[in-house]
Amino acid sequence: QVQLVESGGGLVQPGGSLRLSCVISGGTFSAYDMGWYRQAPGSGREFVAAINWSGGSTTYYADAAKGRFTISKDNAKNTVYLHMKSRDPEDTAIYSCYAESTLGGPYYWGQGTPVTVSS
What we know:
119 residues
């Protein structure tokens, strides 16, 4: 079955380099889009960024991520990345990777990797 596994999170300080990774495994799979959501303590899940997996590499960003985070991919490695170039405590959340198998779904989700930003 299709599995998505995130990694790279943890307890980090502002200003450091942080890159989250999401790897798809479980057999042949061709996603339409892949991306990231996050859920902060006491808040609902919010969209962060997405990238076309097949048919291009167009990116999409939430306002909170623009100019601060960068999404990228490596199709050969079945991996999508989220580079967090600028962080503050408000970015503390569980970051989850998703894959949109076709336009409109279904969606596959990873368990998420927690990111805690503190100084």
